[in-house]
Amino acid sequence: MLATYPDKVVVMAAPDAMNYSLPITTLTGENTLHNAAVTLYYALPPTWKPSLTTPIPGPVPCWDSNNQEELLQLMFTWPRTTSNVLGRTAVEQHKIILSDEVPLKSRAYSVSPFNKKITEDQVDQMLKDHIIEPSFSPWSSPVFLVPKRDGSYRFCVDYRRLNSKTIPDAYPMLLIHEILESMDGAIWFSTLDLQSGYWQVEMEESSKEKTAFITTKGLFHFCSMLYGHRNAAATTD
């Protein structure tokens, strides 16, 4: 029977197969030395062929970051996704469900003239982008600024009191190890990072007044989903 182990010398019994003899010395029962020959066969799997050259992997395509024409062509092909104008989806709306409907009202925090100017500039920009609108809500939360690594400031609203009355959403959050395990066997990967992703989700109409915040320019509420709310992450997931 032919054995099919690559790179292994085995003893075969087929007399008509190609073979070569290896002289050895044996000891018989009479304690006499005799010359003998063992027929050896070099067996290979029928589909296996030795490679004469080392395989060279093919080139991996990559984008030349210096090719500005290609980049501009890509941006012109997808103008809505590469512009600075934020989109907004109505497929899912963020709704705030509270334990009771008694409004919470807070005074604006005292700020320096420097921070006041930054706050007012950001409010003006959000009004221009239709992220917020003037409000007559009985609710109000204070705002503050958080410095970022690049030297700019992040506009934040202190929604701690609102969050304390918000009924938590038990929607299961994604686990990073499960996401990584789902990539097993994949070769190509892509990432998508939305610019101000929360602001691209609509607020449910009756919940808008609960997002109201107070500034030196007046009272405003969000038309898009707010940052800092307890259940905002569950809505995006």
Topology:
Layout: E1 9-11, E2 20-27, E3 33-42, H1 68-77, E4 89-94, H2 113-128, E5 132-134, E6 141-147, E7 153-157, H3 160-165, H4 176-181, E8 201-203, E9 213-215, E10 218-222, H5 232-236
Parallel strand pairs: 4-8, 6-9
Antiparallel strand pairs: 1-3, 2-3, 5-10, 6-7, 9-10
| Class from secondary-structure proportions | alpha+beta
Q: Spell out the helices and strands N to C.
A: EEEHEHEEEHHEEEH
Query: Care to count the β-strands?
Result: 10
Low-confidence stretches: 1-29, 31-44
The assigned CATH architecture of the largest domain is Roll
Helix content: 10-25%
Spell out the CATH superfamily of the largest domain.
HIV Type 1 Reverse Transcriptase, subunit A, domain 1
Using only C-alpha atoms, the radius of gyration works out to: 37 Å
Domain Reverse transcriptase: 127-237
InterPro entries: DNA/RNA_pol_sf (IPR043502), Rev_trsase/Diguanyl_cyclase (IPR043128), RNA-dir_DNA_polymerase (IPR053134), RT_dom (IPR000477)
Enzyme class: hydrolase
Pfam families: RVT_1 (PF00078)
Describe this structure as you would to a colleague:
- With 237 residues, the chain is of the alpha+beta class.
- The chain is built from five helices and ten strands; from the N terminus they run βββαβαβββααβββα.
- Helices cover 18% and strands 22% of the residues.
- The chain folds into two domains: 1-85, no CATH class; 92-171 and 196-222, Roll (HIV Type 1 Reverse Transcriptase, Chain A, domain 1), CATH 3.10.10.10.
- Residues 127-237 form the Reverse transcriptase domain.
- One of its GO terms (molecular function) is RNA-DNA hybrid ribonuclease activity.
